Amino acid sequence: MRHFVSLELSRVAELPLRPLLYAAAAAATAAGVYYYLNNHGDGERTTLDPADTTPTEDPVQMGSAESDLVEPDLMCDVDEGSVTQTDSTASQTDSSASQTDSSASQTDSTASQTDSTASEVSLSEAEEKYELESCARLENEKPELLSDVNALQDSVQELKKELSEARKRNDELEMECNKKSQELQLLQIQHNAIKTHLRKKYEEERRAHSDLKPQYSQLMKTLTQTQVSLTKAEEGFLIAMHYNDENVQEVNELLRKLYHDHKCERMRLESEREILQSQYKEILQQRDELLMDCKREREAHNILKSQYDHLQCWESVRQILQSQYKEILRQRDELLMECVREREAHNILKSQYDNVIETLTHNEELLKYFQISLDEAEEIYWPAMEFSTQLESDLSPAVGGRALGDTQSVTR
């Protein structure tokens, strides 16, 4: 009995990977043998050596003592699956032990008739057979349990790696989020600066438009006055034609020439007015384009490169506006030159008017020479003089007003 228990305990020590399983199997085997020996009664006990009458230790206590000798860290490696399998194996061992007890009770009558040597031989053979079967069964279960432990360890390692990678990704995402927020703040600051600059530029353009508008109104007023003066001149010309149609042919020719010159001047002024209107429309169109560009610049504030391109575009627009402003100044100078030329033309007309006066004087002398009555001469002479005076008074405000408007535009 001691030899059998020591043999089982030695096998348990040789296989430390499944200590609970082997301890349970050893305890069940020892219990079965102990029960079998107790059922044989005194017949078997008389065959024992008196020296072997020492009290036998409880096999359950021996199994628990051996299980206490197992290393604690090996006990912790056993998972729930292995414990369940150990319980099932222990139950199978108990069932086999009960079967062994039943077979032992059946052969009790025959074993009592045999001698002690035959019973010991059969008992040793049964023990060896049972031991071989239990060892084979445990060896078959050992690789599966080892693979389960390895799989669990691998899964734990993979979970640790995934956890570390997740933490690393979380740190990277936090850093990227902080970086994006800083970039967004920088872009917002740049957008506010560009918005302020564009607003100032728009105010400057609007003030320039407001300055050009009264100039245009002044030019239109001057043109209207010129048209009124021309209308009056036409009326005077018609009156002069009515009074001097038969008597003063040369005066009529000069007046026709003067009317033609005034008509040409009016056409020229009309063309200049149309040019100024087209320029004003172009300025309004450019202002609308600038407003559209400002809106597009406000919408495209999230893209830094496009902001830079729009700034370059605004610089080119500024250069274009500067060139247009120079062109307007050049046109103003041309208008001043035209005013000087018109003043010269007025001087020429005045000299022609003096010639007309001389002609009238000569005609008066001719009338005296031909003994025309004084009353008839006065009837012809004084209306002509009044018409000339009225014509001179009409031409002087028109030319003077235009020269005054040009002088004011030059001063501005």
Automatic annotation (TrEMBL):
Residues 135-190, 259-293 form a coiled coil. One of its GO terms (biological process) is regulation of DNA-templated transcription. Keywords: Coiled coil. Residues 84-119 have a biased composition (Low complexity). Residues 45-69, 82-126 are annotated as: Disordered. InterPro entries: LRRFIP1/2. Transmembrane segments: none annotated. Gene3D superfamilies: 1.20.5.4090. Belongs to the LRRFIP family. This is Coiled-coil domain-containing protein 18-like isoform X1. The lineage of its organism: Eukaryota, Metazoa, Chordata, Craniata, Vertebrata.
